Amino acid sequence: MSAIFNFQSLLTVILLLICTCAYLRSLAPSLLDKNKTGVLGIFWKCARIGERKSPYVACCCIVMAFSILFA
């Protein structure tokens, strides 16, 4: 089943996207900062969410890991 139609998989993909963008921005800030608008601006926005809401994103990662492992 595609991740678009399975809600848990969709949440996992979004959470991984946020974490990946935040990690990439910490390594190379200029890579995402030059694309603040347009379609590639989605990655910049995900990086900002990952940076500003990092305790909540970390809790969501832990909850998602337990739900995947034990469900």
Automatic annotation (TrEMBL):
The keyword Phosphoprotein does not apply. It is a single-pass type I membrane protein. Its main location: Golgi. InterPro entries: KISH_domain, Ksh1. One of its GO terms (cellular component) is Golgi membrane. Involved in the early part of the secretory pathway. This is Protein kish. It comes from Anguilla anguilla (European freshwater eel).
